[in-house]
Amino acid sequence: MTLATNERTLVLAKPDAMQRGLGSEVLRRMEQRGLKLAGLKLMRMSEELARTHYAEHEGKPFYAGLVEYITSAPVVAAVFEGPRAISIVRATIGSTDPAEASPGSLRADYGLDKGRNLVHASDSPESAAREIDLFFRPDELVDWKRDTDGWIIE
Asked: Which end of the chain has a smaller Cβ tally under 10 Å, C or N?
């Protein structure tokens, strides 16, 4: 047996989560899953950051609306860490379309529609690294040991 390797992933509580008072619920769900918080900030995303963050969607019909939406209100940006953090976060938030999200996921419990789905989460180790670098400087991330670190065994 080997200990599972820790991953870091970016989670954003989007403007609709913030408008509905669900920013802390997003964070709570991740911590309850056993993930460790490594970075946290409340911010208003600039148009430049939004365009860079969503660059893969540039040219698509929904791109302009996506940039307008994500810059319309504050977001909570968080970095969570833990074994298989990326897949655990993705399962916790549920499918992009709340109508298709698994029962008990954030999007199934609180999501309204595909365009207002409460939360963004990195979908791969590569996107996690890129996205974390967009939102956090290295000195804004905290390495710390929790008593439960290493409990998950592969």
From this structure: N
